[in-house]
Amino acid sequence: MTFLESNIDELVSAKHPYRKILALINFKELTRELQTCYSKIGRGGYPVESGFKALLLQYMEDLSNREAQRFLEENLAGKLFCGFGLKDQTPEHTYFVDLRQRIGTKRLAELFNRVREALIRNGMIREVFTFVDATKLISKMSTWDERDKAIKAGEEKFNNAVAEKYARDKEARFGCKGKDKFWFGHKKNVSVDMTNGLINKVAITPANVPDHKGLKHVCPRQGAVFADKGYSPKDSRNEIKRRGCHSGVILKNNMKEKDRDKDRWLTRVRMPYEGTFSRMRKRTWYAGVTKNQLEAFLEALVFNFKRLIKIEAPPLQFTS
Known about the structure:
The chain has 320 residues and is α/β, with parallel strands linked by helices. The protein is 43% helix and 15% strand. The chain has 13 helices and 6 strands. Helix 11 (234-242) links the parallel strand 5 and strand 6 (246-249). It is globular. The protein starts with 7 loop residues before the first helix and ends in a 10-residue tail after the last helix.
């Protein structure tokens, strides 16, 4: 039997990580609701199940649309993961753009929540202890062009007050972490369930939204919430209490209630989960909160699937 006559299943290692994800996730069932992305009239395209898995591959391997096209043309494991045969034609780069638009953020949010609900039923996410934090998402490294446009139009400077007028990304803003870590773009708010280190919720906001204001998008409804000093303002702790949670927020040094021994313990508890953000993109390819939210869902799904492999989780069961 020649190489081209071989079955692709025979050419990919039985221990390949992609196989483990396929064993964990029933993608046909998971993507069932995405079938509505396509009309039943006219020539059929690629199965939406294969397309969705190709989108996940982009985030597994950090690929642009053109790189994803070439990856599927050349990589046997990628073909196997997406359900393509050796001789099957694989998608061109424009397909990935079209599919993201067809699926849209609303449908992807529903799919993400189906996975989340399955994780809760399986006891993988318990919302007993939750780590919450936010990280930067940079739209542009330099804003000189926008500044020049603003000044030419008579503005004194380019800042958040005029960003909507002159930036390509109309929803991007300047944000700051600490005293001197500035960036232009968005902020990714994430809650990580501390049972198994899985992402429970993720939400995108403009970069100028303070961490404690973004908390409402990712705060659980039970258990204890562990967070850094960015969440120490009173309205943040009130939001945690309103959700029925216990506050594990580290307080600022000038706060009367601060207990340094407690905060040192909270820091040690939080530390293992801060690595979640080191695996996330710090730059965005897209403009606007909605498109970046779609990207955040895909990235979180990939993170969780990889994490499930590491903790040797059983296959997920999805409800109808």
